[in-house]
Design a protein that fits this description.
The protein is 41% helix and 15% strand. It is of the alpha/beta class. This is NAD(P)-dependent dehydrogenase, short-chain alcohol dehydrogenase family.
Length: 271
C-alpha cells in the first residue's frame, strides 16, 4: 500500500511535544519529510510521551524518516519566514503547514486574567497561525501544484490547531476561548480566499487530551473528574487521536474539504 504522504514536505510548529510531536511522527511514518519547529528542540518534561528524551526530529530519523529542526518563535514574522524558507531550502518545496504551536494559562475569569497573559495568548495562538498561514500560502502560490492520487491537483494544505474552546465557552478561559474562536474564523476566511487556487485550509478542534498542557488539571482529582464527566466517551483523548485527523486532512483523501472544523473531542461538543 502506498504511503499517504510520500514525497510531500510538511512543517509542524510546536513539534517538540504533545499534539505537534504526534503529528510530526504520524506524517513521517506516511512518507513525508518533516521540518519540526518549536521554541525548544527538547520535549516538555511534563508530557506523557514514553520517549521524551529523544527529540522529535531525531526520533523520525532514527525510524528511517527525513526530518530537520528549526527554532522558531511563531509570533515573529522573520522567524516564520525563515522557517518556511528552511523547508524549501532543505526539501525543495512545502506541501503542508501545520500551525499547531499554542499556549494556555491558568484558569481565571476576565476579572482576574492578567493583561500580559491575554496578550501572549493572542500573539501565539492567533498571530502565530496568521503568520504561519501567510508565509506558507505565499510559498504555495509560487510553486507548481502536485498531482494527487485521483488525478486532481493541489498547491498546498494548511491545517490550523483550533479547539473546542473555539466552538463553545469553556469556564474561566476567556483569552484561550477568544484566541481559538479567532482561529476558527481565520480558517474559514482563508479557505474562501484560496479555494480557487487549490489550497486547502482546515482546522482541528481537539477536546481534552492527556498532554503536558493539562497535566496539572489531570493530577487534581476534582478537576480531572470534572473533565472526564464533561466528555461522553469513557476516556480522554491522546495526541495520537488528533494526529490521525491531521493525517487525513493532509492527505489526498481530503481534497474537497476546506474551511472545515474537524472536532476530535470524544463527544464533548455533541450535547
Amino acid at each position: 500500500m502506498a504511503l499517504k504522504l510520500q514525497n510531500r514536505v510538511a512543517v509542524v510548529t510546536g513539534a517538540s511535544s504533545g499534539i505537534g510531536r504526534a503529528i510530526a511522527l504520524a506524517f513521517a511514518k506516511e512518507g513525508a519529510s518533516i521540518v519540526c519547529s518549536d521554541i525548544r528542540k527538547s520535549a516538555n518534561s511534563e508530557g506523557y510521551e514514553p520517549d521524551l528524551k529523544i527529540d522529535t526530529d531525531d526520533l523520525i530519523v532514527q525510524r528511517g524518516g527525513a526530518a530537520h529542526f528549526v527554532s522558531c518563535d511563531v509570533t515573529q514574522s522573520k522567524d516564520v519566514q525563515a522557517l518556511v524558507a528552511a523547508a524549501v531550502d532543505k526539501f525543495g518545496r512545502l506541501d503542508v503547514m501545520v500551525n499547531n504551536a499554542g499556549v494556555a494559562f491558568d484558569f481565571a475569569t476576565v476579572l482576574e486574567e492578567r493583561e500580559v497573559d491575554f496578550d501572549i495568548t493572542m500573539a501565539v495562538n492567533v498571530k502565530g497561525v496568521w503568520l504561519g498561514s501567510k508565509y506558507a500560502i505565499e510559498q504555495f502560490m509560487k510553486q507548481d501544484p502536485v498531482t494527487m492520487t485521483n488525478g486532481g491537483q493541489v498547491r498546498g494544505r494548511v491545517i490550523n490547531m483550533a479547539s473546542i474552546a473555539g466552538l463553545v465557552g469553556l469556564k474561566q478561559q476567556p483569552a484561550y476561548c477568544a484566541s481559538k474562536a479567532a482561529v476558527v474564523g481565520l480558517t474559514k476566511e482563508m479557505a474562501v480566499d484560496f479555494a480557487e487556487h487549490r489550497i486547502n485550509v482546515n482546522a482541528i478542534c481537539p477536546g481534552f487530551l492527556a498532554t503536558a498542557m493539562v497535566r496539572s488539571c489531570l493530577e487534581d482529582e476534582a478537576t480531572s473528574k470534572r473533565l472526564h464527566g464533561l466528555t461522553p466517551w469513557p476516556h480522554l483523548g491522546t495526541p495520537e487521536d488528533v494526529s490521525k485527523a491531521a493525517l487525513f486532512l493532509a492527505s489526498d483523501d481530503a481534497e474537497w474539504m476546506t474551511g472545515s472544523m474537524l472536532t476530535v473531542d470524544g463527544g464533548f461538543t455533541a450535547p
